[in-house]
From TrEMBL:
Keyword terms of this UniProt record: Methyltransferase, Porphyrin biosynthesis, S-adenosyl-L-methionine, Transferase
Lineage of the organism: Bacteria, Pseudomonadati, Pseudomonadota, Alphaproteobacteria, Sphingomonadales
UniProt pathway: Porphyrin-containing compound metabolism; siroheme biosynthesis; precorrin-2 from uroporphyrinogen III: step 1/1
Keyword Membrane annotated: no
Enzyme class: transferase
Xref: CDD domains: SUMT (cd11642)
InterPro entries the UniProt entry points to: 4pyrrol_Mease, 4pyrrol_Methylase_sf, 4pyrrole_Mease_sub1, 4pyrrole_Mease_sub2, CobA/CysG_C, Siro_Cobalamin_biosynth, Uropor_MeTrfase_CS
Organism: Pelagerythrobacter rhizovicinus
Pfam families: TP_methylase
Top-level taxonomic group: Bacteria
Name under which the protein is recorded: uroporphyrinogen-III C-methyltransferase
Length: 252
């Protein structure tokens, strides 16, 4: 088809604009239409030309500006009208970002689609807290899971966390009590160390630590809000959030 635009699925990384890939920054600098997630840091959006059109498709738990099907339809419609579309997604588009669904919708409609990977929330948050997700003395396996998936109690998480393993949980703030209960029921020790990393790579980043059994109380007491990741495993006891924060402030 002639005069069909391209949809670029672009990973915005964990928040700090300095962590964008060069290609992502170039696409934003020349964008005419940006369809972006709600948790994109405002500093990233300042890279977009002032005359570009910005469309927020913010998602919150049980509150979506647009259902996913409508987001896919929006991308296809704009591209078929001849516009290049930058679909800006937090972290990496293909790690809990529904980028796969959007790419499939574009291909099905004959719309060219390109994927620009970003630093995932897990990698960015761990780096900001100086927590090595793998470590020769502590972990050789890393698993990513979604904490708000349907049928959480029916998921088989046995073996995902424990000695020599690191578990990273996305979107787990609201379901922290169920997560802790499930992991302990699946055999994980109540005193397994963990870290909750809130607003990673941003000025208001917090790293909260405690044992698995205390996760629900920690989240409630500290009033943890999204975006936040839960990292479970022995590696969390090795990070140095204080040094990470100093480095972040010095960079700013």
């Amino acid at each position: 088809m002639e005069n069909v635009g391209t949809v670029y699925l672009v990973g915005a990384g964990p928040g700090d604009p300095d962590l964008l890939t060069l290609r992502a920054a170039r696409l934003l600098a020349r964008a005419e239409l940006v369809v972006h997630d709600g948790l994109i840091d405002p500093a990233v959006l300042t890279l977009v030309p002032r005359d570009a059109e910005l469309i927020s498709v913010a998602k919150r738990r049980a509150r979506h500006t647009l259902p996913q099907e409508d987001i896919c339809a929006l991308l296809v419609r704009e591209a078929l009208a001849g516009r290049d579309v930058v679909r800006l997604k937090g972290g990496d588009p293909f790690i809990f970002g529904r980028g796969g669904e959007e790419a499939e919708a574009c291909r099905a409609a004959g719309v060219p689609v390109q994927v620009v990977p970003g630093i995932s929330a897990a990698n960015g948050a761990a780096a900001a807290a100086q927590i090595a997700l793998t470590h020769r003395d502590a972990a050789s396996v890393v698993s990513f899971v979604a904490g708000q998936c349907k049928g959480l109690s029916d998921q088989d998480w046995a073996g995902l966390a424990g000695k020599g393993r690191t578990l990273v949980i996305y979107m787990g703030v609201k379901t922290a009590p169920q997560i802790a209960e499930k992991l302990m029921a699946d055999g994980l020790a109540p005193d397994m160390p963990l870290a909750v990393i809130e607003s990673a790579c941003r000025a208001d980043m917090r790293v909260l630590r405690g044992p698995l059994a205390g996760l629900p109380e920690l989240v409630e007491r500290e009033r943890v809000k999204s975006p936040a990741l839960i990292v479970i495993g022995e590696v969390t006891a090795r990070g140095d959030a204080a040094l990470a924060r100093i480095a972040l402030e010095a960079q700013a």
